[in-house]
């Protein structure tokens, strides 16, 4: 069976205030063309169809057109909701849409109810695990703890139980939207940390033939059977080095996997440049970036006059300006930035407690209180995002 694995479309998203709807439409044209040209049997979309819970009408119309084209081509599509989607909104009409071959899996309670598709070697069971916000689905899965590993582990136990009851030789594919240990994040994914932990081990998914992951925006192979497709477009300058692709996966008769990366259209190259303003304006080596979307980091000790306007004369598509002045080792601002670099919210909060108490940091109980407070704020934000 030939599977096209995609994720993280983020329809409706912009890039530093530049609309991407035309680029997203071009990607979907490319997806449909690939389905037809490469004789794809099923399309998988592993979450974050939209960029936010209430997407703009233009994004909804684009999604609607894509579904009509896939259904018209007679190619089944299986998709799950991600942490950016409103599962309830995305899942409206799922039963009716399913009759057209578009299978939406947005309800955690249905994670062990597969979409069954067949090829010449028998059935393939596709299990859709929508994004599982631990605090919201803990009761559904009777998880001992409200953590990502606990709820995903419980969901996968249901999947394995259903698979074990099916005829021998039934192959299996799981779609999931999660941060799996070993994956490399970028700056454009929303934080899903719970209790100081964001990732789950890949072993959670043991027992199935292929795991189609979404959430991280870079295409990655954690092992031959566990892969991220990544987003089809770059959504932050941290993705400058990404090669944006989809996975074309061949699932063999006995569950063997062969995978090929299919490149996605690139609307415009990205570039990150760094240095003093006059150097950036004069450096001939930067000529290759003059047509790119540019993020410029200026290192001038003092902020130059009208830097954005001057940069735009050479780089007309400059979108982001960052100031990182060259500072001496003894500069207090430089040392403060170094102390914060790479630290989590939990670590910063604990450092603050230690600072105001003369070096005495929080004990285990106080650390748990801080962790619970940070989790509560994040969950409240998540609930606001998905509640009508």
UniProtKB/TrEMBL annotation:
GO terms for biological process: DNA recombination; DNA replication. One of its GO terms (molecular function) is 3'-5' exonuclease activity. Signal peptide: none annotated. InterPro entries: Calcineurin-like_PHP, DNA_Repair-Maintenance_Comp, Metallo-depent_PP-like, Mre11_N, SbcD, SbcD_C. CDD domains: MPP_Mre11_N. Pfam families: Metallophos, SbcD_C. Residues 1-218 form the Calcineurin-like phosphoesterase domain. Residues 267-355 form the Nuclease SbcCD subunit D C-terminal domain. Keywords: DNA recombination, DNA replication, Endonuclease, Exonuclease, Hydrolase, Nuclease. SbcCD cleaves DNA hairpin structures. These structures can inhibit DNA replication and are intermediates in certain DNA recombination reactions. The complex acts as a 3'->5' double strand exonuclease that can open hairpins. It also has a 5' single-strand endonuclease activity. Belongs to the SbcD family. NCBIfam families: sbcd (TIGR00619). Heterodimer of SbcC and SbcD. This is Nuclease SbcCD subunit D. It comes from Streptomyces corynorhini. The lineage of its organism: Bacteria, Bacillati, Actinomycetota, Actinomycetes, Kitasatosporales.
């Amino acid at each position: 069976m030939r599977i096209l694995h995609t994720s993280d479309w983020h329809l409706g998203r912009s890039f530093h205030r530049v609309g991407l709807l035309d680029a997203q439409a071009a990607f979907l044209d490319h997806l449909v063309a690939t389905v037809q040209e490469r004789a794809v049997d099923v399309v998988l979309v592993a979450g974050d169809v939209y960029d936010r819970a209430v997407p703009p009408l233009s994004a909804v119309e684009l999604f609607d057109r894509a579904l009509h084209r896939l259904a018209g081509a007679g190619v089944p599509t299986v998709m799950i909701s991600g942490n950016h989607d409103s599962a309830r909104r995305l899942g409206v009409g799922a039963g009716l849409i399913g009759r057209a071959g578009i299978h939406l899996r947005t309800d955690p309670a249905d994670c062990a109810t597969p979409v069954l598709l067949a090829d010449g070697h028998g059935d393939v069971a596709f299990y859709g695990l929508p994004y599982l916000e631990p605090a919201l689905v803990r009761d559904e899965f009777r998880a001992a703890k409200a953590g990502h590993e606990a709820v995903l582990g419980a969901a996968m136990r249901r999947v394995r139980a259903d698979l074990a009851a099916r005829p021998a030789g039934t192959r299996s594919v799981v779609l999931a939207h999660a941060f799996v240990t070993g994956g490399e994040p970028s700056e454009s994914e929303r934080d899903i940390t719970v209790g100081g932990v964001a990732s789950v081990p890949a072993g959670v998914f043991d027992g199935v033939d292929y795991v189609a992951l979404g959430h991280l925006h870079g295409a990655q192979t954690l092992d031959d059977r566990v892969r991220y497709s990544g987003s089809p477009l770059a959504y932050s300058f941290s993705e400058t080095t990404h090669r944006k692709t989809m996975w074309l996966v061949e699932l063999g008769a006995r569950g063997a996997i062969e995978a090929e990366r299919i490149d996605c259209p690139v609307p415009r190259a990205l570039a990150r440049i760094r240095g003093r303003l006059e150097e950036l304006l004069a450096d001939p080596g930067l000529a290759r970036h003059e047509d790119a979307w540019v993020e410029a980091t200026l290192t001038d000790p003092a902020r130059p006059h009208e830097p954005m306007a001057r940069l735009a004369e050479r780089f007309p598509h400059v979108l982001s300006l960052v100031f990182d002045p060259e500072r001496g080792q003894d500069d207090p601002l430089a040392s403060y930035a170094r102390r914060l670099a790479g630290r989590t919210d939990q670590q910063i909060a604990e450092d603050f407690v230690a600072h105001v108490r003369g070096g005495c940091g929080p004990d285990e109980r106080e650390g748990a209180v801080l962790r619970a407070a940070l989790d509560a704020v994040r969950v409240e934000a998540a609930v606001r995002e998905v509640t009508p």
